[in-house]
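User: Structure tokens for this complex, please. No commentary.
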Amino acid sequence: MATVKFIAKRILYAAFGLFALSVFMFTISRILPGDPARMALGPRAPEWVVEQLREQLHLNDPIFKQYIIWLRDAVRGDFGESLYTRRPVMEDIKEFLPATTQLVMLAALIQISFGILLGIIAGRRRNSWIDNVTRVFAYIGVATPAFAVAILLLLLFGFVFDLLPTTGQLSMGMARPPVVTNMVLLDSLIAGNFPAFFDNLKHMILPAFSVCLAGMAQLTRITRVTIGENLRKEYIFASRGFGVPEWRIAFKYLLKPSLIPPVSLLGMQIGALFSNAFLVELVFNWPGFSRYGVNVMLRKDLNAITAVALVMGVIYITMNLLVDLGVGALDPRVRLGERNA
Amino acid sequence: MTQEHDLLRITDLQVDFNTFEGCLHVLDRVSITARMGEKVGLVGESGCGKSTLGRCIVRRVRPVAGEIIFWSERLNNVEDIVSVTDSIWKQLRKQIQMIFQEPGAAINPVFTVGDQLRAAIRFSAPTHIGKSQIQRRAIELLQEVQLSDPERIMSSYPFQLSGGMQQRICIAMALGVQPSLLIADEPTTALDVTIQEQILRLFNDLVSYHRTAVIFITHNLGVVREIADRVYVMYAGQVMESATTDELFENPMHPYTRGLISAVPKLTGGGIIEGIPGHIPSYLDPPTGCRFCTRCPDVVPKCDEVRPPIGSINASHEVACFLYGGEAS
Amino acid sequence: MTTLQRIERASSRRDGFRRSWYRFSKNRLSVVGLVTVGIVVLLAIFAPYIAPYPKDAGAVVNFRHANEPPNWSHLFGTDDVGRDVLSRTIFGFRYSLMMGAVVLSIATPVGVVLGLLAGYMKGRWLDSVIMRITDIFLALPPLIMALLINAVLGPSLINAMIAMTIMWWPWYCRLVYGQVAVLRNETYVLAAEMGGARRPHLLLKEILPNCISSVLTKMTLDMAIAILLGASLSFVGLGAQPPTPDLGTMVASGSNFLPDFWWIAIFPVMAIIFTVLGFNLLGDGLRDFFAVEEQELDKQ
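Assistant:
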């Protein structure tokens, strides 16, 4: 019963976040610019044309009604036309979002597996050489902005060693597999085109590492700390005293309580991954959503900006919901309502 | 019949802590023994080193000198806990269980009570036992510590239970391992007064029933009197006096013990300092002799220079004080 | 351990400062952080006197010396229009520090005051209004929202700072709000309350001073994040505009000349890492010093 209440509460909180996001975005796209119709048409358009568009965009209706209409359109995926690409924003999203999604997913995979693994190793062997190396790595990783990692990796691998491709998502002359999901990695698998699959994967390595390095460092640090703290706890000492095998302590009694802080950190980190993609896609010329986002932002393309932020916000809030539920699964105190996540 | 059957014999144990101010000499040549099935009280003011002593026995603190000889029934051998290899310690450690002051501390917060209780039973058993048998034993143990509705308790998480219940579970887990020695470090101090009494009585009954040897660490003389067969009185990292409980309370000899006992009626509980004027000496640079000399009403000149040897008053009473003979050696 | 605590308390009265320094400097990395931050701050303040070519900070053109690799007269080389990269990097510290300092010096007091007020008015309408607004901001992804606000306001250094500030104050508000909730049940606060102290007195004299250490720690760590964020905004072109010698802007324009003229981008990158690392180390040192364990575990 308490668990149901917990899940309902989390979902409600996420819904509240979505509502907040929509109000925020509505304010920015419809209220701040003054007259969106005039903005869309430019200063030289005759007044009657502008008035017509105003009517068409429901700008003469009360604010509340405008919001409802705006929200209805947004839910339908109708964000209007981009001033930058001159086509419906939804088309742009469909084209650019998949590339970023596959990049961020690979980055998240690398970040979570390596980050937690390194943290466990370092936390269990405090002050060993591997712990010291990990700490140096963690400190530098946290301090290095994603675009800096990208530039350093670009120089190192792209030009000094010439091992990995540094631009785009497929090599020159490599045909793009037929579009199904628009994620090249998936599409090439579906088409059974393995050369394209591996070529695409190779192109992703450097961007993915640049996107996730800071988060990985953060995750390593916090895992190291919580593993170290829990190792000193009386309950671990007691489990040892009961004769519980060391591997069982490590993977069960030590790991579960130690994972709670790193997992709660993941919510913030998913947001950070997408944010970092904004910077990294520019450096590696990755034809993704973030690069599109930066371009429309620099051009003040309001419809597209709203759509980009809205999509990112929805992803962020959904991921945070999943993470919150994950923390609840790990920590009965959160799930059963002794304390809030 | 004497030393062969000692379960635990600690000799000249010395512990130092390094800090900003320098080296703290926390334990100074402490020697205590515990026989099989014997309930030993370790009493002294907070900060006198009694908890540190308990932690040394389970290897959480490494002494700089001295030995801790433990007779292992399973290995049928004596081992020095201070110097044994890790692999032997692994076999020894099940035989020494510990109960902590903070009741929740020994229970993992993210697993159910049942999970941990079953693990304690399963992994401490000398031979493999089946699931249903483990379950039965777990319920038995919970009933032993007088927890009603054991099934519900087993599916609960520690935070859903009160401090008293948690401490009962800790006792159940510790006894479930069937140790030959149980170290209880102020197990009732963190509980409500009414519950303290219940837990104490329960604990006492159970260890008597299981014939488990106990080292009971406390600052509370009343508790010691109720539980212990024999008592060691510690002050500032030194053992001052030891005797059977009745003997100690009837005939306290060391000036510190006398001060301690006479302080009790005035203030129950930990406020002993009020009864004896002065302060505990600094552990940084304590007197080389008896550490109580700075507060002792019967101090003689050599007290702060020479450590009084432990002298036997009779078979069951020893005291480290120049008042009762013992020239400087 | 009670003995240790007692001794610690007794001697802290004796030599408070030396003891504090001992505790702080026991962790070598904290000292490294302090020194790093010190160097960066000094370089930023005295940039016009330290930089070998202070004029190169502006829109100067010197094509005869364009794209020179690092050499004795230009230790970090020169950029595409012949300006000294070392001089521009030293000036770059100014913009990075300024961005962080401006954002935090506005966001922190706003957040702290609102947090205190909400905690003070706990259970009344003002509390709910403040905390609901805070919740709205905390539910949104910070960098993307900052980018968005920045984009709507238009690319410039000032707008980047405004965007960051808007997204920053809620964190302090929640931190202080949480602290007030804990502190108001502390014995000394209850004692003061029973002694007849008024609520403003309680807040300002009993509770606020005890929030300072965690706010200070968070500020130091946030300084690192703010510098990162500021550099990122500039890097994508929304923050400081050329020819401002902002580190992020310099990396962005320098990255066009990779790999041949690597020094134009790499040295500003190193400068960013150096600065952020310094604040991180110092902040971690402070946190251990104040022993605020919950923060690491908190979602913030």
